[in-house]
């Protein structure tokens, strides 16, 4: 093949030389030029062969890559199909579970409807007038009896030394507190004097560092509260509801249900503090247990005190105190002694000016005037923590902690 190509090329060269130089001279030069022409032709064919070899290598490489990509794509397709098949099976299983749950729920609703028709439940918070009169009569019989302490607590407030302003949150009136009988570090906030949503912060850090309530859980109460005299005690919120008469609602904060409720057995109640007209009952807790601070028209000048059973909300004992309502802004109980905080119509420096010890172990000398750290405002709530020996105060929208120094009572 290549030789035929070579002769053809020599003939072409010979024809060209004959035309240019004549036939005799062409015959003389042709033997000299033939080897050079054959060598050049050989080099050209080697070049073409190298290019073809390189092209074949690239085609082979492309074929290998395309085969690998095809194999990977096929594996990925099989994987996706397997996942889709699994997802479809799970979807069918969830659908079957949802249908079964719906059937069980429907059956449960039918059973509940049947039980309600057989045993109709009475209204939860209807006021039983006869029971209320009996409670009032029993409470009056035990009024001002000598109190037998359940603990050996013998401390009273020596001074209020430290004040720490945590932040400003919510409206001008409200309350914030910890559980007075528990070890939890949760912070409970009830903003305003008429609301139904409790904010629960997991720790003090979340409450102080964040301006909004995005770190707080929200608990919606079944009934709105009135005033700022509420209390968190042993995992329950004791709050005041007004429905004609005033009711104490015991609400479980864990399962968010009403555990108990009771109409407060006091007639013709009036605001307990002269400077806080929105609070009719102030719930308080100390080392002795649960208390209620209130006032009635029967003795409208002075504040009254009652000891409550936290389990049943029954009144255990009641007292008329010598502490006046006028210019009172708040109160709390420490070791069985009521401490009433006073101020002025134009907010000035708050002070504990009246102390009433239900056990009679506090001498008049111990009931000294105790001033709060210098700050001109007015407290809408003061919540005592027996475990920490400090007060959680709400002062015109500011949340404040007061730390107290205690001293021993001088018994009479």
What labels would you give this structure?
412 residues; alpha+beta; Lipocalin; 2 domains; 4-stranded antiparallel sheet; 4 helices; 20 strands; 33% helix; elongated; disordered N terminus; coiled coil
Task: Write the topology of this structure.
Elements: H1 2-21, H2 23-118, H3 129-141, E1 155-168, E2 174-177, E3 187-191, E4 197-201, H4 204-209, E5 217-220, E6 231-233, E7 236-243, E8 245-252, E9 257-263, E10 281-286, E11 289-294, E12 302-308, E13 315-324, E14 328-334, E15 337-342, E16 349-357, E17 370-376, E18 379-385, E19 390-395, E20 398-408
Antiparallel strand pairs: 1-20, 2-3, 3-4, 4-5, 6-7, 7-8, 8-9, 10-11, 11-12, 12-13, 14-15, 15-16, 16-17, 18-19, 19-20
Helix pairs in contact: 1-2
Protein architecture, described:
The structure is a single chain. The chain has 412 residues and is α+β, with helices and mostly antiparallel strands. It has 2 domains: 95 residues; 279 residues, Lipocalin. It contains 4 helices and 20 strands. The protein is elongated, with a radius of gyration of 47 Å. One of its GO terms (cellular component) is extracellular space. One of its GO terms (biological process) is signal transduction.
Radius of gyration based on Cα positions: 47 Å
CATH topology of the largest domain: Lipocalin
Count of strand segments? 20
Instruction: Give the strand content.
Output: 25-35%
N-to-C series of helices and strands: HHHEEEEHEEEEEEEEEEEEEEEE
Shape: elongated
Q: Which architecture of the largest domain would the CATH scheme give at its second level?
A: Beta Barrel
- Helix content percent band: 25-40%
| Largest sheet, strands/sense/barrel | 4 strands, antiparallel
Number of domains: 2
């Amino acid at each position: 093949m290549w030789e035929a190509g070579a002769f053809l090329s020599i003939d072409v060269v010979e024809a060209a030389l004959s035309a240019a130089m004549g036939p005799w001279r062409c015959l003389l030069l042709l033997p000299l030029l033939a080897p050079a022409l054959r060598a050049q032709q050989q080099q050209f064919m080697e070049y073409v062969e190298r290019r073809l070899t390189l092209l074949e290598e690239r085609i082979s490489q492309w074929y290998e890559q395309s085969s690998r990509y095809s194999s990977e794509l096929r594996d990925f397709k099989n994987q996706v199909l397997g996942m889709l098949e699994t997802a479809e099976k799970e979807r069918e299983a969830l659908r079957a579970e949802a249908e079964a749950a719906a059937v069980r729920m429907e059956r449960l609703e039918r059973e509940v409807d049947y039980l309600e028709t057989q045993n109709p439940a009475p209204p939860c918070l209807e006021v039983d007038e006869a029971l209320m009169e009996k409670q009032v009569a029993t409470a009056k019989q035990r009024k001002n009896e000598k109190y037998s302490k359940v603990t050996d607590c013998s401390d009273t407030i020596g001074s209020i030394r430290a004040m720490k302003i945590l932040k400003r949150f919510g409206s001008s009136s409200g309350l914030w507190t910890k559980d007075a009988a528990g070890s939890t570090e949760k912070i409970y906030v009830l903003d305003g004097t008429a609301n139904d949503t409790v904010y629960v912060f997991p720790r003090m850090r979340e409450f102080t560092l964040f301006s909004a309530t995005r770190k707080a859980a929200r608990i919606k109460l079944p009934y709105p509260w009135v005033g700022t005299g509420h209390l968190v005690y042993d995992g329950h919120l004791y709050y005041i509801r007004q429905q004609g008469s005033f009711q104490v609602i015991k609400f479980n904060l864990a399962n968010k249900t009403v555990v108990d409720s009771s109409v407060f057995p006091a007639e013709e109640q009036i605001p307990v503090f002269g400077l806080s007209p929105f609070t009719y009952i102030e719930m308080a807790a100390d080392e002795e247990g649960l208390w209620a601070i209130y006032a009635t028209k029967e003795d409208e000048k002075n504040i009254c005190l009652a000891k409550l059973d936290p389990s049943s909300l029954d009144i255990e004992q009641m007292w008329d105190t010598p502490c006046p309502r006028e210019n009172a802004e708040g109160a709390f109980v420490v070791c069985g002694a009521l401490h009433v905080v006073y101020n002025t119509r134009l907010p000035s420096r708050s002070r504990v000016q009246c102390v009433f010890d239900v056990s009679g172990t506090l001498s008049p000398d111990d009931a000294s005037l105790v001033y709060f750290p210098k700050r001109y405002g007015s407290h809408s709530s003061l919540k005592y923590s027996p475990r920490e020996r400090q007060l959680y105060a709400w002062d015109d929208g500011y949340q404040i902690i007061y730390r107290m120094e205690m001293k021993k009572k001088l018994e009479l």
